[in-house]
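Hi support team,

I submitted a single chain yesterday and got back a structure, but I'm not sure I'm reading the C-alpha cell output correctly. Could someone confirm the output below corresponds to the sequence I sent? I've pasted both exactly as they appear in my results page.

Thanks,
R.
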Amino acid sequence: MSTSEHWERVRGAIAGEPVDAPPVSLWRHFPEDDQRAETLASVTLAWQHRFNFDFVKLMPPGDYPVIAWGGESEYRGSPTGTRTVTRYPVQDVQDWSRIRPLPVKGGVLRQVIETARFVNEALNGTVPVLQTIFSPLTVAYKLSAGRVLRDLDESPDLVEEALAAITGTMRHLVQASLDAGAHGIFFATQCATAEVTDAATYTRWGHPWDLAVLEAAAGALFIVLHLHGLQPHFELLMDYPVQVLNWHDRRTAISLAEGERRSGRCVAGGLDETAIAAMPPTAVAEQAREAVAQLGGRHLMVTPGCVIPIATPDANVAAAVQAVRAGGAEKQRS
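Hi R., thanks for writing in. Yes, this is the structure output for that exact sequence:
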C-alpha cells in the first residue's frame, strides 16, 4: 500500500491524529461522459490531476441501479448532473416480483466496477479511491419513484423479497469493486431522513439491509457513510461499521463539531454544495478554513455535504483545496 501524503492524511484523519493538513476532496457528476467506464475514468482522472485531491469519490450516474434493473434515463440539463428517469422498473406493486438478484459482471454494473479498476491503476494506488454504493432502501426508492414506501404497507412481503435481491446485488458490487482496486466505499442513504421516513420505518426497512451491505466491505480501509437529507436520522446509524460520516452539515442543525462529538468518528464536510457554484472563491476558502477551525484540523476531511453543481468554477474548487493546504503549511511553520 502506498505511503503517499494522501494516504497519510486520510489515515491520520480517520485516527484523529495530527496531519500536515486535513484531507480535502470535492466531487461532481460528469453526465456527458458517465455512460462508459473508459470515458468516466478519463474525466475522473483529469478532475483528480487538476486539483490533487486526497481521495477520489467515483461518480457513476446516480441512476445506475435503475438502469441495471431495466429502467431508462437521459440527461436533461440538471445543474447537479443527475439524469432524469424516463421509465421506472417498478410502476405497480406487482413489479417488485421482477426485482431479482443481478450479476455484476455485465451491463452498467460492470461499467461501475471497471471505472474503479481504470482509475486505481492509473493512480497506482497513491490516492484512495471510493466506490459509490447506494443503500438497498435507497435503490428501491430510485427504482420506484418513491412508491416503495407506500408498497411497504400494501405488500411488505413482496417488497422485502425485492430488498433482499437488491441487497445481495449491492453486496456483490461492493466485493467486485474492492477486488477491482477500490480502497473503500462511499455508502449513501437517501432515505434515512425525516423528509422521507420516520425513525421506525428506517429501523425496520433500512437499517438491517444497510448493515448487510456494509458487511461486504468489512476490512476496507476507508468507508464513508453519507446521510442525505436535511433531517437525518443521525443516531439511528451510529452503529454502522464506517470510519467517516458525511452529511449536509452547512444545511442542517448538526455542525461538523457536533457530529464528531456525537459519533466519536472522523467527519467530512464544511463546504456548502448548494452555494459553492455562485460563491466567490474567497468565500469558499473561508468556509474551508472555518471547517478546519471547528475541529482544530483533526478527525476531519474537508468536503462538500453532497455533490457539487457541474457549473462550479474551477477557481472555487481550487480555493477550497488551497485554503486547507495553506492552513496546514502555516501550522507547520508556526
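A quick pointer for reading it: The longest strand covers residues 129-134. Let us know if anything else looks off.

Best,
Support desk
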